[in-house]
Amino acid sequence: MLDDGKLLIADTDELVSLDVETETVALVSDFETNAGRVLKAVPDINGNLIAVDFDRNVVTFLSEISSIYSGLFVQVDSVYSGNFPEVLLAVKVEDRLGNPISGLDSSNFLITEKHGGILDYRFEYSTDRSGFADVSILLDRSPEMLEGKEQLRQVILQLTDAIKGEGGVRIISAGETPLKVADTGDARKDYLQAALAGTDISPRWKFDMGLRLASSELLGSKNKRAVIFVTAGKKPQAGFDQYDLVELTQYMSNNAIGFYCIYIGSERSTVDEYEYLCAETGGRSFHFYQPEGIGAVVKDILASRNGIYVFKYTSARNSDFGREYIPVEVEAFLFKRSGRDESGYFAPLEF
Question: How far apart are CA 95 and CA 250, in angstroms?
């Protein structure tokens, strides 16, 4: 089955898709009329199609022409040089639509410093393969939240139970002055106490500043990253005074942070701005009363992809006791597509 819900059918010498709702068939590929007997075709994790031709003993890789010629978007996510000359480099790889590219390894990358010399780097890990997540739980502090105190209590209990041993949790209160009220390693009762205190409930609670703080708390994480927003489902009066919706979305997307929204109100209504953040960052919205339970949020986060790869190498550059800026360049390759980015760092100062 394809991502849009259509069925993929291998029909001997061609590949077609079936729209079950409209009962229409569309040609996906005729393999340039060179197919023998195509037995099976499946989509890979990056949205391409892999087809098996039994008679010709061939495996065919199918991708949209537009995606091949548009290349890859490569971004140096972070550089850690605290143990210089040993350097840790995190790189994010996406397609032209901003979807993460998964399944790469060291053979898909070329890393250099100062535009010279191929570095002897080692692939450490991909966060897509990580079974851990770091999460910020952002709390709506509108007066309407007072009516859902029991639901909020259940949400905190279910979320902390679901992520126990599989990541870190901190709680951010989005009051008039957003604050981190609980941190990773706190006891379960501390999470509950912080969430239920409600001393900063205000009609002028700050969603934008709270979301910015919740996201910033995750920037140093090497695991999957997500903000889980627990809300009564009302749009804040002063919710976007400091940062607008586009700025917040770009900040989260650029740092591979997913936005997940949990509505605890009894009504099944949603807020357009929250739904937009979910859609644009690869997250999802949930309702407290849905049958699958709130623990499904954590399952979604652990199953998410962000296309971040971490490498370790030993730099041969002279840091001039930490005063020299050292550029680093990264290029990623996948079949006929490629992309590159540049960044740099300073080694720790030496006195």
Answer: 16
Best CA proximity match to 336, nearest among 67, 96, 109, 92: 67
Element holding 124 (H helix, E strand): strand 122-126
Task: Enter the pTM of the model.
Answer: 0.80
The total number of residues written for the chain in this structure:
351
User: Parallel, antiparallel, or unpaired: how do β-strands 308-314 and 86-94 relate?
Assistant: antiparallel
pLDDT, tens digit (0-9, with 9 covering 90-100), for 270-326: 889 999 999 999 999 999 888 877 888 988 999 888 889 999 999 988 899 999 999
CATH classification for the domain delimited by 133-302, as one of 3.40.50.410, 3.40.50.170, 3.30.420.10, 3.20.20.140: 3.40.50.410
Q: Order of strands across the sheet with 73-83? A: 73-83, 86-94, 308-314, 122-126
Q: What is the DSSP string of 277-309?
A: HHHHHT-EEEETT-TT-THHHHHHHHT----EE
